[in-house]
Specification:
This protein is an all-alpha fold. The protein has helices at residues 2-61, 65-147. Helix 1 packs antiparallel against helix 2 (65-147).
Amino acid sequence: MTTKSSNVLKMLEEIAAKEVELATEALAKAMKAADEAQGKYDMLLEYRKGYQDNLAANLTKGMTAEAYQNFQNFFKKLDHAIAGQRDVVLIAQQQVKVHRTLWQESQRKKLSYDVLITRSDKRIAKVEQKRDQKLMDEFATRMTRTKR
């Protein structure tokens, strides 16, 4: 019976290990998506700064009202894209948190099974040790009887 429960625990531990592996892969994927989203966001900010610098340079040289209006319209569209990308970054970061929590839970579950397996193995070893000791005692008793 003890070996049957030990086998069940080992099977559950293997399933938990697969869950950890899947959770690790999902977390890595979420982290990569978050990094890519952050990279796009940073790129849009740099792009906006470049156009701001360009506008400042053109303003010092002098520019037409129509050109200035075009810059303003472009900035509105760019700011809208930046806000949208910021939302994408926040969602991606939230996904990382969710997947990190799932990974931690799967790790705890696997470690719990590891602890149970260790306890079970120790219990089995203790039972076997007692049995071996009993056999040795019986053997020693028989040996002393046969010597008399």
